[in-house]
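Before the break, one more example. Copy the sequence into your notebook; we will annotate it together after we see the structure.
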Amino acid sequence: MKKLLCASVAFIALASANSASAADLPPSPVYKAPVMVPAPAFSWTGFYFGLNAGGHWDRDNISGAPDPVGFTAAGVNPAVLSSLIGGSLHPNGFIGGGQIGYNWQTSNVVFGVEADAQGLTGKSSRTVSPLIAAGLAPGDFTANSSNAQTLVTFRGRIGVTFDRTWLYATGGGAWGTVKTTDTFAAVGGTLISSATTMANRGGWTVGGGVEQALTSNLSIKAEYLFVDLGKFNNTTAPITGFPATDITFTHSYTENIARAGLNYRLNP
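Here is what the structure looks like once it is written out:
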């Protein structure tokens, strides 16, 4: 009995010591999963500038108004001559330049303003002969040429975004320089009167496009614009020896533009 009692006391003492030691240990650390912070939503808001290049396909509708007094006196029917020399030219070529603008985004709607300046290449010309039906001599002719040289637009843009893709419509004012040369040759083509005008014209433009963000700063775009620069006149001088034989040529100029662009946005 004494041995059993001693053993029981020893076991109880050992268990108590182990419990005290465990109570002195620091608590086990509690680990939590890291909090996931979502990336900030992409925004189109901000200033930007860039470059663009593409092609243009123009149409210059031409009509001619011969002076009825002088041509009638010279034995020429001005109405028939007018019908013969009407027509159109189709200059086309390269267009390129730069743009600058600012966008605002609210929800998935983006609107902004953009100004651009372009240089254009391409020239179209034609010669109308013979003009015998109007009463002129063989070898008489009229000739016309035209080409747009510069274009500046100031437009608004508005559209909807699908994250980094923006579909937009655009429209505003347009200002262009068009060079035209109109010629009338009489007396078998030996007497020539030619007039060249550098017309600075104001008009309007409308179109649309899509812009895709590549990074927070860089984006690319594809765009179409229709430009109407209105009408302007160019008048040749009377043929020497035949008073009041001047012809007023009226040009009505429009442009179709397809271009791609690269924009760099500041402080996105």
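Strands lie at 46-66, 87-89, 92-106, 109-120, 124-128, 141-162, 165-186, 191-213, 218-235, 247-265. The chain has one domain: 46-61+69-149+162-241+252-265. Try to locate both features in your own notes.
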